[in-house]
Amino acid sequence: MSIDPKDSELKEWKGPNVPAISFSDARRYCQENGLGYCEVIGLIEREDDWLDDNSLKTTYDRGHKNN
Cβ distance 49 to 57 under 8 Å? Predict the structure, then answer.
């Protein structure tokens, strides 16, 4: 968590979206690209619309975590 310099509010960064087709592929990508500190929490099923705060609303498939 950190302070957002734009509005001085405490924010939590969810991390990057990584190009992968499975949990194991995402974990491998993170390890090979200096993102080993990241935890893979879900796969993006689709990207919906940009929200008012300029963040991207996404829908995650949180199943199949061991794949």
Answer: yes
